[in-house]
Amino acid sequence: MKAEFLLTLAHVSQFLELFPGGPFLKGRREPRVAVVGRSNVGKSSLINALLQTRLAQTSGSPGKTRAIHFYHWKDAGKIIADLPGFGYARAAKTERDRWEVFIDLYFKKEENLDRVLLLLDARHGPTDIDRKAIQFLSLRNIPVTFVFVKADTLKTQAQRALRQKETKSALSELGIEPEGVFWVSSHDQTGIKELARELSVK
Ligand SMILES: Nc1nc2c(ncn2[C@@H]2O[C@H](COP(=O)(O)OP(=O)(O)OP(=O)(O)O)[C@@H](O)[C@H]2O)c(=O)[nH]1
Ligand SMILES: [Mg+2]
């Protein structure tokens, strides 16, 4: 098996036990890759594509992943974390605040974070919610790799070129160096190998 489910972090009361300090998570010390993005953007699907598994639950309706699920990605020598989607519009504000507190605590406690993959929808540039997430991560000095998902929905080369151009300038406006951005599709496997290679321990 290429991947293995490790554990679910669903409540703040678990932090002390799971992150007592040091690099270990359930006895494993592989660096962590956290997958972040708007609800329904395709985080769990991307994890399944990268790990060549169906362990992560996906859904057509937003708000499926409500906790942090950790998987051991053996080929890459990493632990990958599937985070709940942020900015789920129909969730109550208290619920959205709870997300922020929970994720904030995770990033504070996580001593072995390799990087965050911030997923953006290839069909449109960064939305206001995405901008908030970018701000949230940059304020905490978290290293981010930008990944545009659902690239299969851009049918023609011209469409793709236009979207990439728009996106680059949107990212530049946010002060982000748009080089090293990945374009992937979990449905037709576009760019998955390249991203997996980038994330693997060299
Ligand atoms: N066209 C296309 N659709 C995709 C792709 N990846 C995911 N989807 C669809 O997007 C929807 C959401 O996918 P998930 O992987 O569950 O999204 P998520 O970000 O984990 O969602 P939450 O856990 O609710 O935050 C599903 O209907 C998927 O089939 C892709 O590469 N291309
Ligand atoms: Mg999910």
Topology:
Blueprint lengths: L2 E7 L5 H4 L13 E6 L5 H9 L16 E6 L4 E5 L10 H17 L3 E9 L6 H12 L4 E6 L7 H17 L8 E2 L8 H8 L3
Parallel strand pairs: 2-4, 2-5, 5-6, 6-7
Antiparallel strand pairs: 1-3, 3-4
Helix pairs in contact: 2-6
The chain binds guanosine-5'-triphosphate (GTP) and magnesium ion (MG).
Quick gist of this model?
The protein has 6 helices and 7 strands.
What overall geometry do the principal axes of the alpha carbons give? globular
The overall strand count is 7
Average the pLDDT over all residues and give the rounded result: 88
Q: What would CATH call the homologous superfamily?
A: P-loop containing nucleotide triphosphate hydrolases
Structural class: alpha/beta
Which residue ranges are poorly predicted, with pLDDT under 50 across at least 5 consecutive positions? none
CATH architecture descriptor name: 3-Layer(aba) Sandwich
- Rg is 16 Å
Name the ligand types: guanosine-5'-triphosphate, magnesium ion
- Output the strand order for the largest sheet: 1-3-4-2-5-6-7
Q: What count of structural domains?
A: 1
Oligomer: single chain
Major sheet attributes: 7 strands, mixed
Describe the fold and architecture:
The chain is an alpha/beta fold and 202 residues long. The protein has a single domain (3-12, 25-199), classed as Rossmann fold, CATH 3.40.50. It has six helices and seven strands. It has helices at residues 15-18, 43-51, 93-109, 128-139, 157-173, 192-199; strands at 3-9, 32-37, 68-73, 78-82, 113-121, 144-149, 182-183. The protein has a seven-stranded mixed beta sheet, sandwiched between helices. 33% of the residues are buried. Guanosine-5'-triphosphate (GTP) is lined by residues 37, 39-45, 58-60, 62-65, 85, 149-150, 152-153, 185-187.
